[in-house]
Amino acid sequence: MKGASPEPALSHRPPAPLAADVLDRPPGYHDLHPDVSMNFQLNRWLSWMTPQALPDVAETAAGVRGYADFTAAFMELAARLQAEGRSLDAALSYRAADFFLLPDDERRPRARSRFVELTRRAYGIRDGQRIAVPYPGGFLPGYRFGEPDRGSIVMFGGFDSYIEEFLPVMLAMAGHGYQVIGFDGPGQGGALEDHHLHLTPDWHRPVGAVLDHVGLDHVTLLGISLGGGLAVRAAAREPRVDRVICDDVLTDFLAANLRQVPPAVRAAIRLLRITRAGHLLDAVAARRMRHDLLAEWGVTQGLHVLGVTTPHEYFEAIARFTTADVSSQVLGDVLLMAGAADHYVTGSQLTDQIAGLRRARSITARVFTHDERAENHCQVGNIGLSVRVMLDWLAGLDDRDRAAPPGHPA
Fold first, then answer.
1. Is the peptide bond before 248 cis (omega within 30 degrees of 0)?
2. What average pLDDT is seen over the chain?
């Protein structure tokens, strides 16, 4: 298999610059664009930028009318910030531009490579902190920081993320005494773009490959966005997972997708799926894609991520990304996180997930609110708070386990 690189035996200790920045920055969710989805994505990238980037992003977003404008404007902003030596802000501007590019756009590889390169530069990532996990068909790229003084955390993103986006979270957790391994699984980041590995609901397979590669037996899984559902699926079938953090909860990916379209279109898609009218479903989807840029981007990106060729295959594929069939097999401790105003995932998915975890050792649910400025999907607006909640939860479990009498379960 091609694509592996040597992994020098260097320390995995995190670099000092920016390591705790995600915990220290003030909260804030900004009104930058009238389109709800576009505004969320703008705030998503701002969550990782320096505070100085807000005026640049606000000015750039003010002239954006559609995805083509968005991409061109942020490519231009990225180039300017890079020329000014602002590596982190330039990196996230390239990522913003990359996000709405369709898979066959010739600008996409350049935007992605600059995002990855500049992000690594900004955080001082060394070769010895990178990993390449052997996996059927290629490799899963990732990073390893810290030492397992307080345990090991294995984390990953969701449907449209690169693991490099979460370097600040990884570094912050490593700075609190954890060994943190983050990776792109099939359908994500470098695993998709460099090795053409497609998203799978059998998430215990990539998690198992990572645990084999780094030699771990007892870990906490942290899944972001769709990763929250993937984490539950992996924990159900991977006995080396002791604790699970779902940030956010996502029990039904098809339902989350259909929430983004009008009720009539939603009903039509559900009916055509049930009746297996694939050609008609393709026609409905094609018409929607012609009139809705978000639908065009979402379905086109979905075909790329899942390795399918038609909209009806896409909907059939994402219908497999549920947790109802596996939740009862999760035996460890689970932290469920949700935003009170998440525009992707309904609150009912949180209650469904709680109900499904019938055999979990413990369940903690945390709903983030508007007053905390963390009510959005994955707590965009106050990610520092979400990380502190995770760390406090882990510390509480450690206290519980230390207090357990010898030979008795905690």
1. yes
2. 91
